[in-house]
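Need tokens for this chain, all 441 residues.
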Amino acid sequence: MQTLFTPEQLRDPAIASSNQILRTCVHCGMCTATCPTFQLLGDELDSPRGRIYLIKDMLETGRPATEEVVRHVDRCLSCLSCMTTCPSGVNYMHLVDHARAYIEDTYQRPFAERVLRRVLGAIIPRPWLFRLALMGAGVARPFKWLIPGQSMLAQRLRAMVSLAPATVPPASAVETPQVHPAIGLRKARVALLAGCAQQVLSPSINEATIRLLTRLGVEVVVAREAGCCGSLNHHMGQHDAAMARARANIEAWSQEAEGQGLDAIIVNASGCGTTIKDYGFMFREAPAALAAKAATVAELARDITEFLTGFGYAPQREAPGLTVAYHSACSLQHGQRVTTDPKTLLSRAGFRVVEPAEGHLCCGSAGTYNLLQPVIATQLRDRKLANIRRTRPDLIAAGNIGCLTQLGGEELPVVHTIELLDWMAGGPIPLSLAGPLAGRG
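Here are the structure tokens for all 441 residues:
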């Protein structure tokens, strides 16, 4: 693709990076075949190729973002399926992230939307505040029908209340800064991202991760001052907040690595993992010392299933005779290109693993997408669940808290992959399976 940026524009590192990405695109349109929003809406501007044209024009002219550009970029899930499909290696992730930051700098959203996005960006990354918000939403849930109208704001408010759990689990002690010693001979030392939303919605995921790793001889540290990875703010274009949260993690984990050492940084929420693995790029223009730390952290980051694959996971219980529909989170299969490890581990644990049709398509969660674009998100969710049901599974497994929340609440139990692996290696049965399967574990 030919670009027309001026030498002055190209002195901006963000423009220079986007210029290289744009010039990689050959207009082939293969991305349209795997783009969820294009599949649903059929609008070229709601495909990666269409958005690339819009972003190119916006950046080249240097004009403020228009309502049209914002509408179509906002509809992008950042599922990155287009990157898996693209034969030219276009890094759409970096391009759309740049576009979102540019939009936030140049476009005046309606007042209610500005407030909503700022509230989401402030509350969800703070576990104590998010817990309070969920408690309030849980109280309001039976009364969501009282929210009138079909405006976008009304739809978003109803989506927020609907997605809130009926009860919020109590905070877990394992997620406070501390060291969880290995059981027996220590074979490795890792840091665990305790995260933000996940530790509130499902603390059992971190508990299962720590139990399993320590039984395998891995010392697990939850580092002081580490917290939200920054991805939620990053994908809403809230650049400064995202970078501040990322930098806090980089400094916290670097201190651990430089102290007693780290063999890996374990992430069990794949949306977070994709961002942490990109810290090197995000801090490429930072002072040399910080840039080097960011690159090291990115290299150490591992999805929990990546780490277990290379660490000799083996089950301790008999096969449970259950069929698991494996939902591959977009951030894991497209963002991190981790595709076989979770399925191999689940099979090794004794589960019969099935994959639904259209496994490359997003479930509609995508960070805050199911809150900000509830109509499209619901259509994708319903499509995903219909494909899953056709496999006739006993339960659904996934490796991302957003997907678990999006696909939950139906007749099929939805369980994090690590909880199933921990159960089969001697841990307790996952809570969502405890009722119907209590006799098995």
